[in-house]
Specification:
Keywords: Signal, Transferase, Ubl conjugation pathway
GO biological process, one term: protein polyubiquitination
Distance between the termini: 77 Å
Protein name: HECT-type E3 ubiquitin transferase
Strand content: 5-15%
GO molecular function, one term: ubiquitin protein ligase activity
Catalytic activity: S-ubiquitinyl-[E2 ubiquitin-conjugating enzyme]-L-cysteine + [acceptor protein]-L-lysine = [E2 ubiquitin-conjugating enzyme]-L-cysteine + N(6)-ubiquitinyl-[acceptor protein]-L-lysine
Shape: globular
Amino acid sequence: VSPPLLSCPFHLLLVLSVHAPAERAPTMHLHGPAVFYCVSRSGRELPPICSDVRQKQRLSIDTLPPEVKAPFPSDPIIPLRTKTTKEFQEDMDRAVHSGDWREVREFYLTTFDSFIEINAAFKREANGSFNTIDDSGVNAKFVNAVYDALLSTPQDIQKSVLKGIINSLLREWKGPRTKDDLRAYFILVQNPQYSSTSTYVIYAHLLRQIAALSEADHHFLVHWLKKLSARRFRQLVERLLQFISTRLFPAEPDELPPLAKCSWWIPSATKVLGLFNAANSVSSPPIMPFTDFYNITLEHIDFMEEYRTWQNYGNSNRFSFCQFPFILSTVVKKAIIQKDSEQQMISQARQSLVSKVSRRQRVDMNLLFLNIKVRRAQLLSDSLDELMRKRCDLKKKLRVTFVGEAGLDMGGLTKEWFLLLVRQIFHTDYGMFTYMKDSRCHWFSSWKCDNYSEFQLVGTVSFINSNKTIRCWPKLLTPPTAPCDQNALVGMATATLDDLQQIMPELAHGLGELLNYDGNVEEDFYLTFQVFQEEMGVVKSYNLKPGGDKIPVTKQNRKEYVQLYVDFLLNKSIYKQFAAFYHGFHSVCASDALMLLRPEEVEMLVCGSPELDMSALQKAAQYEGYNKTDSTVRCFWDVVLAFPLELQKKLLHFATGSDRVPVGGMADLNFKIAKIEVSTDWLPISHTCFNQICLPPYRTRKELKHKLTIAISNAEGFGLE
């Protein structure tokens, strides 16, 4: 037995039990228009996010390097086992009714005695090769039947299965794994017995061996896992998540071996969970939402230490959950980005302070902030001028002043500035973005100009906050260091028809029909490699390739036409606009933590959620001067819950400065209702810096609804009480 297997007392007990005589008597998006190739701020290569398969999901066996395509060793001859699912179920029924479990016991004892026997029982053809990713060769129906029945058998049968698995895992293996070995791992990982902590030692060793398989083996397992039923797939994912949570926070101190002696448990389980995440990602549609891979337990660990480990140890074997970002919830990722940004703010403020002191200049506390002064009537131009003029302060804490208004910015004015600025930027009359009705999102306008600095402003603002839907693409998820030269070229990735589907679904559908058309493409569609696009009311033509206006689209070249057209729409036609946006975005967000995010998560962090759950807000609300049973408070919630969605958004904007829900939901708003002892003739007052609304003691529901509606419908501008 190799030393690692004897790393705790549990292992020794298990090994001894293997060699005791067997007792037989009854007892597993969003590609964007471009990807930017950068390195981390320190100039080193960042550690791989190895289980995020957005870059691997199109991997096929033909693209693997020669060393992993080497022929597998010949599988041993497998004994013939002829028991069918029906026969097994009949055996189970007889055993349940008669109490005689001998035949069932013999089946389980033999089947799980070795990898060869596992294949003999569950392989559809005992000595068939089944060497493809498309077919594992496993009789899934029989596996499900055997496992579904296992937990209802007597304890001695269940123990014999575990002993057989221990025997199989402890055998010494030489050379690469065979396909039958992979099949055995694929079957064993589905065993329902691993839900109990008493079997965690065995489960951990199984996971360790699966995690240690080669990339080629993992490639096969990923494609086999995606063919599991949705129910079984979810069960296995939840079991792995529970295993990681229990290992981190066991219910009883002595329930599991000491963590110091079993430090490999969590890395092994997380790597195997990564295979399930990969299988989910390559499935179309996904088997389960990506959010179901989040482990909420990790919100209670020192995730900043995990982040620093990931940053500091590069591509070494030092484990960090940040190498597997699919397991981290958006709440954790947001916290990492915020803390990393705060550290950058503090660092920049400290540098400014030291610079002033070293030059013997008077220190002004304003140098610790990015101070923006804007006029409401010239909001966009003033904001652009201020941000350009104070570019070196972009990482400092933002503080906004509206000229001519007495409000002090404790957070509320900043939110107001964001909301008004983004509304103006995304207004269709302004021409920077085009609203796509079919996809209900904004996309870059393709008009050409000499100055794209306003797109840079949008990028700067978008990282900090935004309240419009702008598509977030994987190209924002590259190592987030903005190139020093704003004119530096950025790399371009291949855009697909699936990407276009997210922005222009009708056009994508039409191009899909072109690809699948069985008739005469040239005569029926009458297309050339020239496309037309409207820019500021003028229709312009563009050749997708040299001489494109004279090249007809045919059945033979239609794939090339579609690819060039998609690339033109999502890359080339808006390259300068997006490049400016990118530079602006990363001038503020120079954080490696951005690599942890999926495109959907970027959109959530930047835009917030448009889904309002006022019942959740009611449950999380705090009170000052009132309690939740007071008549004014009860009337308030009766009115708010009955409001249409538009008025609910206005209320949220009135109280918080934004009509979107932050990551973490309504509970993260710390919403408070306070009592003010004034006449009921007054309208409600809000403090957006503190997400607080102040209500006079209105006597009736009708009076409260009238005053509240007036207040939330006229909610721009700030003053001092």
